[in-house]
Amino acid sequence: MAEQPVDKKSFKKLGTRHKARRRAVDLLFEAEARDVDPADLLDERSELAARDQAVAPVHAYTHTLVEGVADDLDRVDGTIESYLKDWELSRLPAVDRAILRIAVWELFHANDVPPVVAVDEAVELAKELSTDDSPSFVNGVLGQVVLVAPQVRAAAAATRAPRPESEA
Predict the structure, then answer these.
(1) Residue 7 pLDDT more than 60?
(2) Taking the CB of residue 35, how many other CB atoms lie within 10 A of it?
(3) Mean pLDDT to the nearest integer, 15-21
(4) In angstroms, what CA-CA distances link 24 with 17, 73, 87, 137, 158?
(5) Which of 10, 36, 126, 150 is the most buried (most CB within 10 A)?
């Protein structure tokens, strides 16, 4: 049988942001397993990459995700827990927790990421990294979170908006 020609598009499928998300999942997973602060682990890996050229540098979007999840962990986890049926967040596989945390943070805070992309990326990561049941589970939870995400974004924008001088 003749070898199939290499499809250049298949190399593009896993883009830079996908790789950044995957590394963020790895870092969040490791931080939880080692019981260390994710932001401290991120700093440690960034310093290691700066010292050792054999270690891949940490992408800026990985920094954004890990720091964002770490800063908003209570609200992100509370949101996830509110959509779990007959489950507790602590009982989920750790990799699923990391994937869901990143996706929920993106749905709430990443204005440059369309909601469908955040959900699709999370499902893809679950396919790559977790159990056979995880992609549909992740999709189901995020399908509910995506419904409230616009309100969360609007509320966050309203609290960040500067007050008119007449109210100051």
Answers:
(1) no
(2) 6
(3) 95
(4) 10, 14, 24, 20, 28
(5) 126
Residue written as token pair 């939880």: 32
**Rounded average pLDDT over 53-76:** 96
CA distance linking residue 98 with residue 25, whole number of Å = 5
In the block, residue with structure tokens 């999370």: 122
Spatial separation of the C-alpha atoms in residues 142 and 140, rounded to whole Å: 6
Largest distance between two CA atoms of the chain:
77
Residue 69 has pLDDT above 80, yes or no: yes
Q: How many residues does the chain have?
A: 168
Instruction: Measure the CA–CA gap between 48 and 155, rounded to whole angstroms.
Output: 38
